Automatic annotation (TrEMBL):
Keywords: Signal
Keyword Transmembrane in annotation: no
Designated name of the protein: BON domain-containing protein
Source lineage: Bacteria, Pseudomonadati, Bacteroidota, Sphingobacteriia, Sphingobacteriales
Keyword Signal: yes
Organism of origin: Mucilaginibacter aquatilis
Annotated ranges, domain BON: 27-85
Annotated signal sequence range: 1-19
Domain of life per record: Bacteria
One Pfam family in the UniProt entry: BON
Length: 152
């Protein structure tokens, strides 16, 4: 009986562990770390709806990204505008992965990394932005462009 209760508690915890936009984005970030198909893709989450933008090198890689995101059962939907086009794996990959790891706590912010320069877009509170910018600066990017909107 105790074992059954422990199993039920673990299942309930796993089902509720990914219920906020931040948790959903963090889950995507973890999955993106090990899947190269995410290299040219940016993602944001608002009200449990995931928005995917960017480029995948093939239809197959786009399907991998979509299937990976859709496997998160608590999401309400996916808006995607992923184009098929060239994605060059450069020395920016480790920086992009590090930036995405930091951004996992900020569900509506995404970034591109080109030649070591980080460009931020999306929306965040002023408080979150005051935490985010120093965290990204610690990664020592070649530059940091902030186009994040702070809602009133």
């Amino acid at each position: 009986m105790k074992v059954l209760l422990a199993i039920m508690a673990a299942v309930a915890l796993s089902l509720t562990a990914c219920t906020t936009d931040s948790n959903i984005k963090a889950d995507i970030a973890v999955k993106a770390q090990t899947e190269v198909a995410f290299m040219g893709v940016n993602y944001a989450v608002k009200d449990k709806v995931v928005t995917l933008t960017g480029v995948c090198p093939s239809y197959k890689s786009k399907q991998i990204v979509l299937q990976t995101v859709k496997s998160i059962h608590v999401i309400k939907g996916v808006n995607e505008s992923i184009a098929i086009g060239p994605v060059t794996l450069t020395n920016d990959l480790p920086m992009k992965q590090s930036v995405d790891s930091v951004l996992s706590r900020y569900p509506q912010v995404w970034a591109s990394v080109i030649n070591g320069k980080v460009s931020l877009k999306g929306a965040a509170t002023k408080e979150d932005l005051n935490k985010l910018l120093p965290a990204l600066a610690m990664l020592k990017p070649a530059g940091l462009e902030n186009a994040v909107v702070v809602p009133r």
